[in-house]
Design the sequence.
């Protein structure tokens, strides 16, 4: 049956279908939900969010570089890191070079025969008289002078003659050289009927060299040649020639010979030791402190030290240090040649001091005092030299190798603030502590240092009184990062004795549970005191460890929040 | 009578428009409703009953919403005695197990026309169509992150969080199309349609193969993956989103781009039908073969496949070891991390024009007419369609012509992996008009009301949302029907050649 073609169907049916469809499409509500702020939750969600916070690798070298007030270096023998506090003992010439201001006065008297001979000379005839003289004096600081370098100075000769003749003098300083040639002075005396006849001459001795070879200090040799030119007059028998030789303002720039054994310079050094006042010897022990003195001597003179005082002091006390390292103090070597240096190093350590340096430092002095005198050429060596550029430099280093033990070294810091509010604000919104099961901070350490650490946190109230702590005393789960494994089987004379041979791997979780957090929220915590306690392994047995610059401590910190979204709103 | 039809049709259109949810491509329920010109989208080798001319703007409008992500009605329960609904966390968690997609498609024809030629041996159609698409895909692990976190190792095991398949895509284009259908003989017919495309706007963010793993011991993060961003014509919109306003130049640019576009392309639709016998007919079709080349206002970013590891602040490199120093370093550290990330990703930015594919859609179908000689011609249809990377769609349809005035299709099938649903299409010859309405999801019939209570417990606002409608597709259209005066019946077999009826002066010409 073609039911589609019933009368009126084609009008009403399509429209009816359409309306029905539209009515249906316009919305058929099959359920309704009421939504509000306190909607309950069925089921649970336990998301956990973790993220890495920070990581780092620190060597002992990095840690020491962070301390601006301390210098450090690696011990050349053992490689152990050591703290170094330098100080200057002395920097000066070992002795001052002499200043020469000498004069010589001589009178040459003619004998009767010479006078007669001169008187008989025809007018205009000449006669030369030759003489040799030596002019010497001592230099107090030198037993023997081989040569001198002269810087500046004036050599002058003044002559007064009673001889009625024209005279020419040539004076040759046979052992005084200028530009490689003996210094020659020439002076003429012209007779004009008046006596005495006077004249003088000078020579600049700048950059002159004097070569001596006596053991009697300085001796300048002169060769005199006097040319007489007769004026036809009679020369009296008592005629004289008076000579005045002066050598003035002569600055010696170099002296070569033998310097006398003598004390020359005093030195006094008071070196502050701020570190030693800060450590507690019951907590910190350095096994091998030492003082290294390093001398550089550019003179050719061996130099010794006569100690008056070698001590550690406080305002009230003085502890003198003796022992072979002090008493048998070495002689500082001389330079072997000009423009070179003699270097001498002397180490004062526990093996040569009484009391030992360790014992002295554990008395917590605030400074080291060194008084003494420089002793020139103590062994009487012959071939010395000294120039204006010669210097003696003595510098000292207080070296404290990081070898020893430490226990109970505690660093504290307090974080102040409204901790309880911060604890809540840290996660709310979007969570509250009902949604958070725990917060974990994970420390992953690879400890290659011979130093372990423990941490405790105490929660403080507004009066800074501890109201709770993160761990109870002796808690097995307390925060602890053990030190690296140290092998003490190596002999203690070996540089590796006390060294970490295996880093210790540790994973330490710091967990703040919901219960603890809620307790803190209720406490009105106003501060957290963090105490970090450090110690070397087996410090209770005074076991020694060594810190090497390359020892590494790696630490990684990550955080995780474990949530537990449950039924309760 | 005609006036009555017009009034009824208008009411229907208004009510449908009022109840329409949104968007769409082509309703599959229209595939076997040859009274509706829109059925040619699915059956390009088929002929409609009439030539037509659309009324601008309402000739064919389709809206489709795909939502496999947000179904709040599934997450709640409320007992009859309860004052408030209860959030069922397990339901929320389970609902995000599958890939999650939110997509909106809008299609509107400004102009449509179709005309028979050669005694109905061929049919030419064309039009101007506006197409807009927006889709958001979120990976399951991302949505479930508030439930699992990144460190619930009991739940995650050794698996990393898989954040691949994250994508955002937006596209607006205009199609100028012209199609030709031809009945070659009693058995074969074919159709072809050429689309000239003008791209108005395009933006796409694609993340490929992104994994986020957390080390079980150290809690370090590692990311592995790559991604890309392509955009054309998006800059004025980005400027608007950033500043909340547009300057005159941007407004001018938007207006110009709306007309002239920022890209061009071509698309091709091909189809073939084979009538096996009087009862059976089979067809195959491919739509949107082609591509679009985006040429103007280009912003492209792409990364290399990279692995990035995050292990926290590198404290040992800091100058200051104090906590304060670390805090002061965070800004610089964050910048350093961003710089490292940018370097590792090897971000490559350029303004090079690029090409996008239209996404070919393949269709296979068959229609069975058990009683071909019966006037009211019921038939059964079966359509299988593959749309790009989306899951296979299928639809079975019972098609019924109600005389010459109306044809309906009741269908059932699954579409794009969004679950099964029933659908309907109605094409009604209302005098000179053909009114078409189709909807591919019966789940739009089920709604849930969410009453928001204020602090006093009184309902301050009520929101209505489909209870569970992964797909909502509504398509409506009104066209002017050529030859809308009654004509002789359509024959069951394809006519190779029909006699030419010389119109008399008293008869209205037939086109």
Sequence:
């Amino acid at each position: 049956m073609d039911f589609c073609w019933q009368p009126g169907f084609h009008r009403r049916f399509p429209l009816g279908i359409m309306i029905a469809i539209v009515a249906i499409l316009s919305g058929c509500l099959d359920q309704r939900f009421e939504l509000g702020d306190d909607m309950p939750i069925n089921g649970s969600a336990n998301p956990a969010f973790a993220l890495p916070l920070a990581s780092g690798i620190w060597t002992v070298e990095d840690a020491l570089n962070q301390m601006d007030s301390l210098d450090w270096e690696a011990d050349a023998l053992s490689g152990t890191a050591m703290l170094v506090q330098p100080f200057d003992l002395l920097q000066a010439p070992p002795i001052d070079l002499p200043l020469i201001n000498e004069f010589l006065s001589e009178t040459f008297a003619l004998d009767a025969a010479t006078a007669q001979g001169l008187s008989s000379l025809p007018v205009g005839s000449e006669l030369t008289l030759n003489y040799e003289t030596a002019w010497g004096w001592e230099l107090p600081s030198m037993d023997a002078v081989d040569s001198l370098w002269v810087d500046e100075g004036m050599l002058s000769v003044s002559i007064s003659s009673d001889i009625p003749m024209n005279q020419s003098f040539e004076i040759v300083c046979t052992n005084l050289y200028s530009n490689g040639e003996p210094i020659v002075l020439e002076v003429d005396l012209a007779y004009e009927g008046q006596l005495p006849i006077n004249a003088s001459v000078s020579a600049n001795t700048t950059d002159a060299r004097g070569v001596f070879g006596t053991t009697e200090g300085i001796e300048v040799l002169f060769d005199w040649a006097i040319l007489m030119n007769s004026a036809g007059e009679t020369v009296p028998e008592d005629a004289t020639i008076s000579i005045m030789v002066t050598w003035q303002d002569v600055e010696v720039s170099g002296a070569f010979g033998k310097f006398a054994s003598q004390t020359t310079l005093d030195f006094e050094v008071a070196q502050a030791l701020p570190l030693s006042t800060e450590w507690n010897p019951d907590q910190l022990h350095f096994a091998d402190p030492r003082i290294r003195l390093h001398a550089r001597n550019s003179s050719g003179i061996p130099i010794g030290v006569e100690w008056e005082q070698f001590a550690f002091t406080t305002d009230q006390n003085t502890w003198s240090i003796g022992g072979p390292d002090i008493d048998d103090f070495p002689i500082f070597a001389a330079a072997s040649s000009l423009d070179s240096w003699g270097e001498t190093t002397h180490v004062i350590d526990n093996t040569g001091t009484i009391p030992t340096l360790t014992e002295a430092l554990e008395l917590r002095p605030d400074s080291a005092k060194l008084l003494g005198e420089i002793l020139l050429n103590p062994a009487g060596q012959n071939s010395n030299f000294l120039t204006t550029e010669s210097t003696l430099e003595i510098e000292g280093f207080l070296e404290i190798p990081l070898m020893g033990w430490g226990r109970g070294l505690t660093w504290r810091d307090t974080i102040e603030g409204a901790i309880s509010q911060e604890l809540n604000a840290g996660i709310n919104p979007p969570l509250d502590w009902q949604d958070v099961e725990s917060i974990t901070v994970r420390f992953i350490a690879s400890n290659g240092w011979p130093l372990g650490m423990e941490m405790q946190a105490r929660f403080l109230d507004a009066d800074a009184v501890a109201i709770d702590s993160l761990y109870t005393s002796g808690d097995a789960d307390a925060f602890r990062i053990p030190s690296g494994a140290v092998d003490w089987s190596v002999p203690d004379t070996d540089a590796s004795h006390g060294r970490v041979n295996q880093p210790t791997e540790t994973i330490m979780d710091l967990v703040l549970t919901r219960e603890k957090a809620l307790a803190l929220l209720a406490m009105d915590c106003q501060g957290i005191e963090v105490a970090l306690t450090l110690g070397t392994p087996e410090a209770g047995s005074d076991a020694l460890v060594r810190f090497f610059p390359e020892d590494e401590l790696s630490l990684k910190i990550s955080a995780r929040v474990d949530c537990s979204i449950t039924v309760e709103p | 009578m005609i006036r009555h039809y017009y009034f009824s049709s208008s009411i229907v259109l208004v009510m449908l428009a009022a109840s329409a949810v949104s968007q769409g491509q082509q309703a599959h329920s229209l595939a076997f409703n040859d009274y509706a010109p829109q059925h040619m989208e699915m059956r390009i080798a088929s002929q409609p009953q009439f030539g037509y001319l659309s009324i601008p703007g309402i000739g064919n409008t389709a809206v489709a919403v795909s939502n496999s992500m947000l179904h709040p009605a599934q997450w709640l329960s409320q007992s009859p005695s309860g004052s408030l609904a209860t959030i069922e966390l397990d339901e929320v968690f389970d609902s995000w197990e599958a890939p999650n997609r939110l997509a909106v498609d809008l299609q509107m024809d400004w102009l449509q026309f179709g005309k028979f030629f050669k005694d109905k041996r061929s049919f030419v159609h064309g039009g101007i169509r506006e197409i807009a698409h927006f889709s958001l895909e979120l990976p399951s692990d991302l949505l479930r992150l508030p439930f699992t976190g990144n460190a619930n190792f009991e739940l995650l095991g050794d698996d990393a969080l898989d954040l691949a398949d994250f994508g955002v895509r937006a596209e607006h284009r205009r199609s100028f199309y012209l199609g030709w259908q031809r009945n070659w003989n009693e058995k074969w017919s074919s159709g072809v349609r050429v689309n000239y495309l003008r791209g108005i706007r395009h933006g796409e963010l694609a993340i490929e193969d992104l994994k986020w793993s957390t080390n079980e011991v150290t809690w370090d993060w590692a990311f592995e993956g790559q991604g890309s961003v392509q955009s054309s014509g998006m800059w004025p919109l980005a400027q608007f989103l950033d500043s909340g306003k547009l300057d005159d130049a941007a407004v001018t640019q938007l207006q110009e781009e709306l007309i002239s576009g920022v890209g061009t392309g071509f698309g091709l639709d091909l189809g073939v039908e084979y009538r096996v016998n009087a009862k059976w007919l089979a067809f195959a079709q491919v739509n949107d073969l082609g591509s679009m080349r985006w040429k103007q206002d280009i912003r492209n970013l792409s990364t290399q496949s990279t692995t990035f590891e995050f292990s926290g602040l590198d404290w040992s490199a800091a100058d200051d070891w104090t906590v304060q120093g670390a805090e002061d370093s965070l800004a610089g550290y964050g910048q350093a991390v961003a710089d490292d990330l940018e370097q590792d990703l090897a971000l490559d930015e350029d303004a090079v024009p690029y090409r996008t594919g239209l996404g070919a859609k393949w269709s296979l179908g068959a229609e069975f007419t058990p009683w071909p000689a019966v006037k009211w011609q019921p038939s059964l249809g079966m359509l299988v369609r593959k749309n790009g990377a989306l899951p296979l769609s299928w639809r079975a349809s019972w098609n019924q012509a109600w005389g010459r005035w109306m044809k309906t299709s009741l269908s059932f099938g699954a579409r794009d992996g969004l679950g099964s649903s029933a659908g309907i299409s109605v094409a009604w010859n209302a005098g000179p008009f053909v009114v078409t309405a189709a909807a591919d999801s019966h789940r739009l019939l089920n709604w849930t009301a969410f009453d928001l209570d204020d602090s006093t417990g009184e309902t301050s606002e009520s929101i209505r949302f489909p209870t569970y409608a992964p797909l909502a597709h509504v398509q409506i259209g009104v066209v002017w029907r050529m030859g809308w005066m009654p004509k002789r019946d359509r024959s069951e077999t394809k006519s190779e050649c029909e006699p030419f009826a010389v119109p008399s002066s008293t008869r209205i010409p037939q086109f």
